[in-house]
Sequence to fold (696 residues):
Amino acid sequence: MHVELYERIWMWAAGGLLLLFLAAIFLTAGLHAVQPPSHVETVDPTTLASDPEFGKPGVTTRADGSVVVSVVAQTFSFSPDPIEVPANRPVTFRLTSADVIHGFEVVGTNANAMVIPGYVSQFTVTFEQPGEYIIGCNEYCGTLHHNMVGKLIVKRESP
Amino acid sequence: MNGRHSLAAAHIGVAVGAFGVASVMGVLQALSVADISFPYRSEALYYISVTAHGVLMALVFTTFFIMGLGYALAQESLGRIIGRGLAWFAFALGLVGSVAAAVTILRGQSSVLYTFYPPMKAHPLFYIGATLLIVASWIWGGIVIASYRCWRREHPAVPAPLSIHGMLATIILWYLATAGLAVEVLGMLIPWSLGVVGKIDPELARSFFWWFGHPLVYFWLMPAYVLWYTVLPRVAGGKLFSDSLARMVFILFVVLSVPVGFHHQFADPGISAHWKLVHTVTTYAVLYPSFVTAFTIIASLEVAGRMKGARGLFDWIGKLPWGDPFFASVALAMISFTFGGFGGAINAAFAMNSMVHNTAWIMGHFHVTLGTTVALTFMGATYWLLPRLLGREIRLPGLAHLQPYLWFVGMALFSISYHIAGLRGLPRRVYSGSLTGEYGASWHGLTRLAALGAVILFFSALSFVTVVVSTWIGGKKIQAPAFEFASPLRPVTALGVWDRFGLWTVLAVVLVAVAYAYPLLHLFAHPRYGSPPLQPF
Fold:
């Protein structure tokens, strides 16, 4: 196959650029465990009310000081609401849905996950900036999807 | 109507009709998100319009246009369409299916968006109608392949015409992609929507949907590339820079564009990070043929400018026929794709995706890629095709000249605004940018700018439909111009590795199996509960 010199240079450069992109992704994924929420765990969406964890969604602090927030999304609200967590401490969110698919996006941060009935989404974030954040549902869930807004309060830790 | 091309013309007519209805739905949404009031504005109307816009643009307009283009190319480049009767049957099937689905949407029974994620349930006719459209496209693909095989028997030793090479690749890709959709719709959604099955697993359905959903964009893009490679250099007055690389590009799309679906599911539970990373690699790989295309097409245009006497480094750009509506449409489409492609690289960037996932950024992104790169190419191609299909001169040429530029300006406003609003966190698919009424200060100005862009886009769409309709009914009758394809600088004359469609298809199937088998089986390894149907709309 005949390929002109300039085109050959371009093709190598394009390949190099893509490898560079992938290298950046692999390095951060490998060295710093930077990855999207990818937890694999299932739960029955039709019996959430009697589930030991999601029957009483809320914020719990484990013995080691880490914070776990269990959230149930349903049309058209999140519970608990508001959610109160400390600043500068790892917070693990565990989310599931009682009905259709929802989204959970803490506006202005990279805390952003799909909430799928039958599955538990889980990810850990640390909020450095105390204050009030909006939690938006970013997956269409019905007529009042735009009203599905929760509040996250990040509190400064008392020393 | 030119008898030989009545099939192609009928398909393109339906495509333009769907496009017209969808455009109205588009502007309504942008106004609603910007909290600009208009008569009958309501949540229900908003979600009807989101669903109708998505289904009519993404599935009906594109599929009918591509089928029409395929028939026109088969007729011109192969000299035949095998099975015209069957082709008309498929046309009717696709039309009936599309109308059935559209009616349930407009009646508010199927506000499930074009992604129709369960457990949200549409009217059963929505799924059945969509299935009929897909079945119609399968028949169409079979007819083009049969026409090609018939031609091949008469021409055993030469490569297929490039336009047909590209269409064949498109059709193979389409069969691979729609296999995933068929499993979801026939195996899960239709029985469940009819009450035969009580519960289905939403995550499994999503995975099959995105098996289909990303190659779907290549199903749109490849016919656009066919036009860029085979028609654009000719319209510009030049030659195709590289015939062999064009053939390679289409084959790379066949091989690489299906095993990439998880990059739409980065934020999903149920799929491990490792498999998402595998799909990240294939997603970046599938950018490669577009990089190659960028060089070949721009080099072809430079050849055109130099053949017209350009000497300096950049003055060939000014020699190009910017007043020709086909040329202007495609050139602007390509400029959009430069931005859209890099935006896509960000979306595909594994963890960086979390910043933009399901925000308005995504709307901004697919409107510069599909909404401009593909849609504007198809609109421009319609101006090129109509005289050839109908034997009529384009009416209102002034409007046709202006229309692509209007689209570009409108889309720039719309898309840039939504990209920025998305970075600031505006969620997707919201009836009101102020959400419950008290938020959105940081993006409200942007949603208004986007609405202005949408109004400009609407006028551009209206101009396009007006030109098509008035040409169709009142364009001056002329001798239909010939389909003139670009001649390559260095034509490929012998069959080569890129003509081995069977081999590449097998490789593509293997890659799909590798990319999906384990993660899907992994879903089955956990207790799965499923969801009953719900209709919160």
About this structure: The CA atoms of residues 109 and 365 of chain B lie 29 Å apart. The mean pLDDT of chain B is 95. The radius of gyration of chain B is 23 Å. Chain B has 16 helices and no strands.
